[in-house]
Amino acid sequence: MVHLSSAPGEKFKGRKIGGSHPILPYEVSPVKTIPESFKGDVPHYSTNFNLFKKNKNVNPHEENLAETVAIYKDENSLKKLRNASKLAAEMLYEAKKIVTQFDSMKDQDLTTDAIDSAIHEKILERGGYPSPLNYNGFPKSICTSVNEIACHGIPNLRPLQFGDLISIDVSVYLDGFHGDSCASFIVGADAPNYGEIISHNDELINQIERMNRLIEATKEARKNAIDVCIAGNTISAIGHAVQEVANAYEFRPMKNVYGHGVGRHLHMLPRIKHFKNKDDVILEEGMALTIEPVLVEGHHAHSLWSDSWTNSTVDGGFACQFEHTVLIKEYGPAEILTKLQE
């Protein structure tokens, strides 16, 4: 099913630009569970899969969007928001190490399911709940989107390949608040034999060059968008900042992926477009927002898989996402709550 979210009457007629090994649906392991011994807080959707029955015609980012603007000014709420966001960032860093240090010549196969299991356990050990689990029926604890998969990829048993581009979205619920983060990495990028593996493979070298350029652009788009997250600015400034970077690199923002308010609920108001728009909501002190652009090499249209979650590019072009949770301050730039450790 192809969706042209910004141009309903448009038909995709572009050329295919993907690689020779497209990402296809793969076996998914059984749904994760939370042990009865877990003593931490859990969100209201954690125990009932039918509570938020997935609607195939609704964007998961919009379905059940809490009709409350995410604004926090009291110290207790801000402390909890910062703690949840910090934990999300730390868990994303753990996922990064697993992915980038993978040695394809020595290690056993690495799957997104294995990454999900590892992060699931680490979150529970820290007293948190993995926010995606059971949200609208999502069966796993993180989202893993590989190559042309743009967002909401469900971890599965497909072995990752050296040189795959993977976006990992980690959200954590801790002490009544959610923190949300995402970053993109190249599988094996920090492996000891990285240079040896790519040295005589021109196709792989070209692929990684394309990925690195997309990563650079998406990180820049997120940074420039956060730079305009200042009290008094209109929310459209965020989309304009992303669009300018995308245009400069000749990439496009995927238009069905929105930022949002976050905190007591995973998805709250306001909704944030990462492309040029005329939304006139004014940014206010205390707003907690996610800035999470997805940039793609080719057409901005997306294809929704039959699992009702996985969004892929329509032309096979690579997709990349970076996300931070930020807090709008009374004066000056926003506070970034999910800075990834380096």
UniProtKB/TrEMBL annotation:
<keyword id="KW-0479">Metal-binding</keyword>
<feature type="binding site">
    <location>
        <position position="180"/>
    </location>
    <ligand>
        <name>a divalent metal cation 1</name>
    </ligand>
</feature>
<dbReference type="InterPro" id="IPR036005">
    <property type="entry name" value="Creatinase/aminopeptidase-like"/>
</dbReference>
<feature type="binding site">
    <location>
        <position position="169"/>
    </location>
    <ligand>
        <name>a divalent metal cation 1</name>
    </ligand>
</feature>
<comment type="function">
    <text>Cotranslationally removes the N-terminal methionine from nascent proteins. The N-terminal methionine is often cleaved when the second residue in the primary sequence is small and uncharged (Met-Ala-, Cys, Gly, Pro, Ser, Thr, or Val).</text>
</comment>
<dbReference type="InterPro" id="IPR000994">
    <property type="entry name" value="Pept_M24"/>
</dbReference>
<dbReference type="GO" id="GO:0070006">
    <property type="term" value="F:metalloaminopeptidase activity"/>
</dbReference>
<keyword id="KW-0175">Coiled coil</keyword>
<feature type="domain" description="Peptidase M24">
    <location>
        <begin position="80"/>
        <end position="330"/>
    </location>
</feature>
<dbReference type="InterPro" id="IPR002467">
    <property type="entry name" value="Pept_M24A_MAP1"/>
</dbReference>
<dbReference type="InterPro" id="IPR001714">
    <property type="entry name" value="Pept_M24_MAP"/>
</dbReference>
<feature type="binding site">
    <location>
        <position position="323"/>
    </location>
    <ligand>
        <name>a divalent metal cation 1</name>
    </ligand>
</feature>
<feature type="binding site">
    <location>
        <position position="292"/>
    </location>
    <ligand>
        <name>a divalent metal cation 2</name>
    </ligand>
</feature>
<feature type="binding site">
    <location>
        <position position="180"/>
    </location>
    <ligand>
        <name>a divalent metal cation 2</name>
    </ligand>
</feature>
<protein>
    <recommendedName>
        <fullName>Methionine aminopeptidase</fullName>
        <ecNumber>3.4.11.18</ecNumber>
    </recommendedName>
</protein>
<feature type="binding site">
    <location>
        <position position="152"/>
    </location>
    <ligand>
        <name>substrate</name>
    </ligand>
</feature>
<feature type="binding site">
    <location>
        <position position="267"/>
    </location>
    <ligand>
        <name>substrate</name>
    </ligand>
</feature>
<keyword id="KW-0031">Aminopeptidase</keyword>
<dbReference type="Pfam" id="PF00557">
    <property type="entry name" value="Peptidase_M24"/>
</dbReference>
<keyword id="KW-0378">Hydrolase</keyword>
<comment type="similarity">
    <text>Belongs to the peptidase M24A family. Methionine aminopeptidase type 1 subfamily.</text>
</comment>
<feature type="coiled-coil region">
    <location>
        <begin position="201"/>
        <end position="228"/>
    </location>
</feature>
<keyword id="KW-0645">Protease</keyword>
<dbReference type="GO" id="GO:0004239">
    <property type="term" value="F:initiator methionyl aminopeptidase activity"/>
</dbReference>
<dbReference type="GO" id="GO:0046872">
    <property type="term" value="F:metal ion binding"/>
</dbReference>
<dbReference type="GO" id="GO:0006508">
    <property type="term" value="P:proteolysis"/>
</dbReference>
<feature type="binding site">
    <location>
        <position position="260"/>
    </location>
    <ligand>
        <name>a divalent metal cation 2</name>
    </ligand>
</feature>
<feature type="binding site">
    <location>
        <position position="323"/>
    </location>
    <ligand>
        <name>a divalent metal cation 2</name>
    </ligand>
</feature>
